[in-house]
Write a structure and sequence with these properties.
Length: 319
């Protein structure tokens, strides 16, 4: 009878296999993370497309007018644009941008104005004339952050959304004029493919209604190159107690983790602070959706009267 000797793995062999697995994991895990992030970006684009179609369907039923950015009643209730067009979106989940923060409070709430963190993940720009701000105050480049991009110039900007304010009994309505201001019509936009209708944001109206002088931080001028909190209650802000840009936010393909999309707070002087990195998902007033580098979206300008310049994506008149 011949006996066969069964041999097990040696310690050296086991260690070699473990080392190979560790090396493969170190190589593949970042790839998996990038794939997951890319998938979330695709979902964000699809959600933005659904919201854009909802906006256009609303306009069809509203004499060609886009939805109001917000409506404020005398009972301390705010109805953002994303709330009033729910009959067209037919899904609260569309508002939950997967590339955004996941610590939202009451994210399934359908109560008007009770969860501004949920509504704030996507923003729509109000018309300057709905606010108490002057044309000079609706300019990008007032802050050190913006001056890095503008070279010290002031670039004008404007939105497309109207506002209805019954009474200024809620903090976010204080910068708006009392009364009813209709939104622009789809046919009044000079360059529909270039004009932002909605985009990723930290608040539903970019905080432009708070301009001038009503912000919590900085000089209170809530321009696209400033940062602020909408409410003092952290649960009502999309990024909790982190001060976010008062304008579009770059959430796709970010490289800054939790700092993506907003300037460091407190603000640093140039060149010690970074401009937002990554892409901003946005929908044009013609309904198309794309992801554009934040610096390109906010840094592309067109000439306007008086030898001045305006941000192309936020200048409905186009000239």
């Amino acid at each position: 009878m011949i006996r066969t000797k069964r041999r097990g793995f040696t310690l050296i062999e086991l260690l070699v296999v473990i080392a190979i697995i560790a090396i493969l994991a170190a190589i593949l895990f970042p790839v998996f993370a990038q794939a997951k992030r890319a998938a979330k970006g695709t979902v964000a684009i699809n959600d933005a497309k659904q919201m854009a179609l909802g906006q256009l369907m609303y306009a069809t039923d509203a004499d060609d007018n886009f939805p109001l950015v917000a409506q404020y009643d005398s009972n301390w209730v705010c109805y953002p644009w994303s709330y009033t067009q729910q009959p067209y979106m037919k899904s609260w989940g569309v508002l939950l941008d997967p590339t955004g923060p996941n610590d939202l409070v009451n994210s399934g709430s359908a109560a008007a104005g009770q969860d501004l963190a949920l509504y704030g993940l996507w923003g729509m720009g109000p018309e300057r004339l709905t606010t108490s701000a002057t044309a000079a105050q609706f300019t990008f480049g007032q802050q050190p952050q913006g001056k890095v991009m503008t070279g010290g110039q002031l670039w004008s900007y404007d939105g497309i959304g109207g506002v209805a304010v019954t009474a200024k009994v809620i903090w976010s309505a204080w910068g708006y004029n009392t009364g009813y201001y209709s939104s622009l019509t789809t046919t009044s936009i000079a360059n529909p493919a270039d004009q932002v209708m909605i985009s990723q944001a930290g608040n539903f109206d970019y905080m432009w209604g708070m301009n001038p002088g009503l912000g919590d931080f900085g000089n209170g001028n809530d321009t696209p190159d400033n940062f602020d909190l909408y409410f003092s209650g952290c649960g009502s802000n999309a990024y909790g107690c982190a001060a976010t840009i008062c304008g579009p936010i770059a959430r796709q393909r970010d490289n800054e983790g939790t700092k993506v999309g907003f300037f460091p707070f407190p603000g640093a002087e140039p060149p010690n602070f970074p401009l937002p990195t990554g892409l901003t998902v946005w929908a044009g007033t013609d309904g198309h959706v794309k992801a554009t580098p934040w610096t390109q979206l906010m840094g592309t300008t067109i000439p306007i009267s008086g030898g001045n310049r305006a941000i192309k994506a936020f200048w409905p008149s186009g000239s």
